[in-house]
Amino acid sequence: MADAPPPLHITLAASSMSSLVSRVACHPLDTIKSKMQATSRGSVTTCIADTLKKEGARGFYRGLGAATIIGVPAGALYFTSYEAFKRRLGDGPASHLLAGVGAEAVACIVFVPVDVVKERCQVHGYTSSYECFRTVLKKEGVQALYRGYGPTLYSFGAFSGLYWAFYEQLRPSGTVSFSAAL
Fold first, then answer.
1. CA 10 to chain centre
2. What is the CATH number of the domain that holds 52?
3. Which stretches are Solcar repeats (predicted)?
4. Which member of 66, 90, 170, 175 has the greatest number of CB atoms within 10 A?
5. Is 75 helix (H, G, I), strand (E, B) or coil?
6. Is there a domain that residue 3 lies in?
């Protein structure tokens, strides 16, 4: 007999804590990636050295406010939405795929604006996430915060749907059985 899934509030709490810890731990890596993509810095080592020299250690954490204040709830929303969609749609690969895409669509409503603010903070050196958010709204409007929603959803929605469809099929046994599929 399969274990009953945990209540959604447990999923929400666990995914919130997991998101917070992973965002804080990995944000410096994301900052380096964003800086290298937005500028013509040579190597990872050069980017790290330039950031330390010009901004100090705090430079690696620009945009962390936006990433955690809204990003943590977005991560929690993603996992909780996935569980809710999965319970509604039922079990099976197609249901898991649709639940993954649906969860990504819901989470992107929150995550895309956060990502826009985070990346602009990392690259353009705003003093705070709030300053960046306010400036983008004032100069470019709300639509600027959602620039890239469609392509983000296509990319991450496809990934999320396929990820969950395969994960849910492979997880029960911990093995892959290709003969059953043939």
1. 20
2. 1.50.40.10
3. 6-88, 91-173
4. 66
5. helix
6. no
Give first-to-last CA distance, the chain, whole Å.
27
Task: Give 63's DSSP letter.
Answer: T
Structure tokens at 89: 């749609």
Tokens of 152: 């983000």
For residues 20 and 5, give the distance between their C-alpha atoms in angstroms, rounded to a whole number. Answer: 23
Instruction: Take residue 114 and report the two structure tokens written for it.
Output: 């956060």
Tell me the C-alpha distance between 83 and 133, whole Å: 31
Whose structure tokens read 């296509």? 154
Question: What tokens does 81 get?
Answer: 């939405």
Domain of 112? 8-171
Give residue-wise pLDDT tens across range 74-88.
Answer: 888 899 999 999 999
Q: Mind listing the pLDDT tens digit for each residue in 117-143?
A: 888 888 887 888 899 999 999 999 999
